[in-house]
Amino acid sequence: MTNAQFETFALSSLSSGVHCLQKEDGWKTKYASPVAVSVFGMISTQLASDPALWVDRIHPSDVDAVQAALDTINEEERSITYRFRDSNELYKWILFRCKKMEDGIIVGLLSDATKMRTKEYADRIHLAGRNALATLLNISDLVESINQFLMILGKAMVVDKVRLVRFRKDNKAFITHEWVRSQSIQKLELPMMIPIEAAQWWKNQLEQNDTVLIKSCKEEPIPSLDSTTNYDYAVMAVPAIIYGIVEGYVSFEVSGIRNWLPMEIEEALHVVNGYARSVERRIDDRNQIAAEFNLRRSEEKYRQLTSHSPVILFGIDAEGIFTLSEGIGLESMGAGAGDVVGKSVYQVYRNFPDILEQVNAALAGSESHGLTHIGENCFEVWFTPIWDEERMVVGLSGVAVDITRRNKLEQQQTIMMSELDHRVKNNIAAVMSLVTLSQQGARSIEEFAKALDGRLHSLAVAHSSLAKSHWSGAWMRDILLLTLQPYMSGSVERIRFEGPDYELPGLLARPMCMVIHELATNAVKYGSLSNENGVVTITTEILPEGSLRLKWVETNGPLVDEKPTLGTGISLLEGLVDHEMHGTIALQFEEGGVVCQINVPLSVEE
Questions:
Q1: In sequence order, what DSSP letters do the residues of 411-480 get, joined into one string?
Q2: Which residues make beta-bridge pairs with 274?
Q3: Residue 31 and residue 21: Cα distance in Å, rounded?
Q4: For residues 567 and 113, which has the higher predicted lDDT (pLDDT)?
Q5: Which fold has domain 425-601?
Q6: Can you give the pLDDT at residue 336?
Q7: Of 102, 108, 80, 81, whose CA–CA distance to 92 is shortest?
């Protein structure tokens, strides 16, 4: 055979045909071999009599891309794939391998690529179906997982919308999830109830058929689900059958006319069935949780009783492993319910031998009870052994109550009682001492009573000042004003205060009141306050070493000829300063009056 015969055989016998195109007011058929006409699925005379028919038969979604590709072809070979409508009004895929000749005519071989593209499409939607089902398992958020599920299916099947519709027992139905391909498509406000008659129609159809396939809603009118679909569109609806009942369906919608392929129907059935099984698994999980809840109902009720009280419930098995740890009291320990379950009590409380001692006693068969301090918290704990039918200890149960507040109150009460006892003893001792001193210097009952009354008054002033600060201390200026108030009457300022004010500790306030009283009493009897012209100047100063210096200076009083003999007042002053205030006192008897300087440390211990 000659080369020409080989070529003739190939062109007439193989599945590829020759197609030549020329651009004359658009691309038109110049020549189509008989095989090419057969591949197109056309009658041979159709393309020959109407060269523009080829372009008119290309799928509307592909025609612009095909013409643009033809415009850019040069001397290099190019492959173009497009959909073509045959004489039976069915689309097939065409693979056109072509090249431009010098005169601008495009010559190429075309073949039917429908099987190849169908297999690619089948593989793609099958893979998408697997991925869609995987999202239902991998994404814990149910709403998000369904949205991803619909999106993967919609993109793979090249549709405009995918919706999930659910039926309710009251015959109402809602669109609960929706995916749309383009932002230009109006989205619904979900969930959206669909008309009752539409819900009933769809439910009846899906109960009778595995799928509902609508090639064109204009050719086969169906009840509309919403007002946004007012154009011609195709629908494929697949029921979601859960426990044998049609609980809803997934609908695939695309604008225009579409013949749904068997592979699309098969994959949609498979994937929606997988969705239904995933819902059943979720329901089964919930039922299992509910069953477990019912089994533990009594335990939960017990927990509820302790949810608002500072109680901890715990259980420990025979090996020392926590089996229960519940109660709001755990919060005070910085722990949550169940945090220690599965852990050993000997490890968790290894630094608390008192707890482990009580655990061992309970596991040995003895009940135990005691107080345990964990950090700043105090717990009262009861341990009770648990016995099996053979009287063997199989573990223990326990209750711990947080009594931190009660414990602190009890400690405060103990301290307060001790402090009260101490202060009462001190006051009794002070009163007894004042009685003794006042008796020694008195020449009559009246003089004794007067001296004792003044000294008791100074003691009362000290108590009044300390009570204002809850016995934490008293301000120096308050002590002076309260103690000297009886001697400050009249229009002339006879008692003057100089220097800074300072809060004396509680232990210094009481003796300081009595010191001021003794100095004032002496000034009224013998010193500057015994006449009309005398003046007392009281100066306070805080020394660098943390001591208080108080200076009492009397002027313009009666002349003092000589140092008086040591009396009870001076003895009391020295005793108060030296022994109670741990300070020093210096007395000078000038002609104009007494000068007394007292230095006391401000930090004193009981």
A1: HHHHHHHHHHHHHHHHHHHHHHHHHHHHHHH-SSHHHHHHHHHHHHHHHHHHHHHHHHTTTSEEEHHHHH
A2: none
A3: 7
A4: 113
A5: Heat Shock Protein 90 (3.30.565)
A6: 75
A7: 81
Residues of the chain with CATH 3.30.565.10: 425-601
**What CA–CA distance (Å, rounded) separates 363 from 383?**
9
CATH dotted code for 3-112: 3.30.450.20
3-state SS track over 333-355: HCCCCCCCCCCEHHHHCCCCHHH
Spell 91-128 as b/e; 16+ CB within 10 A means b: bbbbbbebebeeeeebebbbbbbbeebeeebbeebbeb
CA angle 28, 31, 34 (to 5 degrees): 125
Q: What is the pLDDT of residue 94?
A: 93
CB 179 within 8 A of CB 145: no
Highest mean pLDDT among 72-76, 80-84, 346-350, 580-584: 80-84
Q: Which two tokens stand for residue 554?
A: 């009397």
Rounded to the nearest angstrom, the gap between the alpha carbon of residue 55 and the centroid of all alpha carbons in its chain is: 63
Cβ–Cβ contacts within 10 Å for residue 297, how many? 10
The contacts of residue 430 (CB under 8 Å, 6+ apart) are: 459, 510
Task: Classify 499 in phi/psi space as left (phi over 0), alpha (psi -120 to 50) or beta.
Answer: left
Question: Could you tell me the two tokens for 556?
Answer: 């313009």
In terms of Cα–Cα distance, which of 514, 395, 412 is closest to 465? Answer: 514
Q: Under a CB-based contact definition with an 8 Å cutoff, are residues 17 and 32 in contact? A: yes
Span 119-290: which CATH code?
A: 3.30.450.40
**Average pLDDT, stretch 554-575?**
74
Domain with CATH 3.30.450.20 in the chain: 3-112, 300-402
Looking at domain 300-402, its CATH class is alpha beta
Question: Cβ(373)–Cβ(404) under 8 Å?
Answer: no
Q: Could you tell me the two tokens for 504? A: 């004396």
Provide the residue count of the chain.
606
